[in-house]
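Async update (no meeting this week)

Hi team, since we skipped the sync, here's where things stand on the single-chain job. The sequence we agreed to prioritize is pasted below, unchanged from the tracker. I ran it this morning and attached the output directly underneath so nobody has to dig for it. Comments welcome in thread, and please keep replies under the output.
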Amino acid sequence: MPVDSFNIGLQNRAFRYGDGFFETMHANGLHVQFVDDHYQRILKSANILKLTLPDYFSQKFLEEQIAGLLSRCKLFQAVRVKLTVFRSGEGFYVPNSNVAAFLIDATYLGKGPYELNAEGINMGIYKEIPKPKLPYSSIKSMNAQLYVLAGIYANSNKFDDVLLVNDGEKIVEATSSNVFAVKGKTVFTPAVSSGCVEGIMRKQIIHIAESMGYCIVENEGIDEHNLLDMDELFLTNAIVGIKHISGFEKRRYYRKNAIKFMKELNRIAFNSKQD
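Output:
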């Protein structure tokens, strides 16, 4: 159905309580990149939130539903696919059902392969509300108030994006991305236990860096002052792949490692060599 014809009732738990999660995927040519990893994270997210997915909700079913939607909409190039899963039925804080309902929508992005941003982004840090380490901190919960407030802060202070800290005052992620820092042949990224989202692209970049001989250090978050000593900073998510950070405070960063990682990422994701 057209987006503007979709309506939800006042008793919808996604609207009333943010009771659910979402999964954002990158598709090209009717196929979702890294779909196995996405499906496993969907299962994990549902389990954490005590949501019961329908018996028919297999990976094959998910892929067929997405392909059917993209085909009907004639979206054959790069597309953002968003799966929203929420608890159906009514009830107050105690739901009368744990059965999950879901919605899939798609938005055209443009070209197929991931493209590294030519102009790096300028980052700040949002410290007003630390991200707590909760059992559902690693999933894409529908309760996104922290990210909304961080986005408002970034916009008000003329940053392209901001880094978020956990309750230990360690940097753990950005508003919609995981964060990586590179020093020589060592790649640092916050561990999932630090409170960051367990990103699909995060997983791919760790594997790629390891295959290229880099040492991977997953820590409980990155100290702010350590960022100034790094050679390179970049963000990752399933839609853009890698996003180069050019500036933090007065420090400027290279992007040579991001270029190498992006080239390999496109080879894996689209089974083609990129120049």
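Quick observations from my side:
The two ends are 39 Å apart (CA to CA).
The chain has a mean pLDDT of 94.
Reply here if anything looks off.
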